[in-house]
Design a protein that fits this description.
Elements lengths: L4 E3 L2 H11 L6 E6 L5 H13 L2 E6 L19 H10 L4 E3 L3 H4 L19 H4 L3 H16 L3 E5 L3 H13 L5 E5 L19 H6 L2 H14 L4 H14 L3 E9 L14 E9 L2 E8 L1
Parallel strand pairs: 1-4, 2-3, 2-5, 3-4, 5-6
Antiparallel strand pairs: 7-8, 8-9
């Protein structure tokens, strides 16, 4: 099996990208922060079906972490990641360091609005989407893909990046990939490794609560009551809830019933020191 080309400098990236684009081959980008799991691999496989050439970026982006968050301890598994990408036939891995992405004197940042100010993740991580939008815009201009694949688990992020690509005419089609779950329903995440055995046993309550809430809403229950009961169930399982919300699936605006749809149920909660997020279609 042939190992992907690995680019660590902009010069080597641009050379490799020129080679990939010969004969007008379509190029797909899968942006990641490494610590790859089956959710990432599902995006790589979707990219392979959609494009002739696949680029995966691995960069733990410091600008989307607040001072109290887990930048220093975020899992880094380069050798295992490279082995997985080799097995999937990825063509190029873009693996810059922070100095390459944010050189001395770097002074430009994107301040997204619209879905970035929906009152979900932005309410608890106000720094986050500015960091995401800036690094993704850089990745798009560096790699120049025809399309980019993002997981639906980070649903608000998907909407923010999609809007940014449209608003700034970046020429990249943003495609969402379905959430990949463990057998018990827990959404796959690089942060799941932080969970203790007891926490891991409790973690699937998030997904079960989302499913139960969606079922109640489809059965005609009132939105406010269904969400309140869901929040109570999450708290009983040992979580500290940040939000359990029903939002319009396209705009992320609040809704009052399923008739305002399409509707997405979104949840974020901490279990011990680990913050988990999830969402489903209502």
């Amino acid at each position: 099996m042939t190992q992907p080309l690995i680019a660590r400098s902009l010069q080597s990236l641009h050379r490799a990208r020129t080679e990939l684009g010969r004969r007008n081959a379509t190029v797909a980008l899968v942006p990641t922060m490494g610590a790859l799991h089956d959710g990432h691999i599902s995006l790589v496989r979707l990219a392979r079906r959609r494009a002739k050439k696949v680029v995966v970026s691995i960069f733990v982006n410091p600008t989307q972490f607040a001072a109290h968050e887990d930048l220093g301890s975020y899992p880094r598994t380069w050798k295992a990641d490279l082995a997985k990408l080799t097995a999937e036939g990825v063509d190029l891995v873009w693996h810059p360091d922070a100095k390459t992405m944010y050189p001395d004197g770097f002074a430009t940042r994107i301040a997204p609005e619209g879905p970035a100010l929906a009152g979900l993740e932005d309410r608890f991580r106000p720094h986050f989407f500015g960091g995401v939008a800036t690094v993704v815009a850089k990745l798009f201009t560096q790699v120049r893909p025809d399309m980019a694949l993002f997981g639906e688990k980070d649903f608000q992020q998907l909407k923010v990046v999609s809007r940014m690509a449209r608003d700034l005419d970046l020429g990249v089609k943003v495609i969402g990939g379905a959430i990949v779950r463990e057998r018990d329903g827990l959404a796959m995440s690089s942060r799941n490794v932080y969970l203790s055995p007891e926490e891991r046993s409790a973690a699937p309550v998030l997904f079960r609560t989302l499913k139960d809430t969606a079922k109640r809403l489809r059965g005609g229950d009132r939105l406010k009551a269904a969400l309140a009961d869901g929040a109570e169930a999450i708290g009983r399982a040992g979580f500290v809830l940040d939000y359990l919300e029903a939002r319009h699936a396209d705009t992320l605006a609040p809704v009052s019933s399923l008739t305002d749809g399409p509707v997405r149920l979104l949840v974020a909660a901490k279990l011990g020191t680990t913050r988990l997020i999830d969402n489903i279609r209502a």
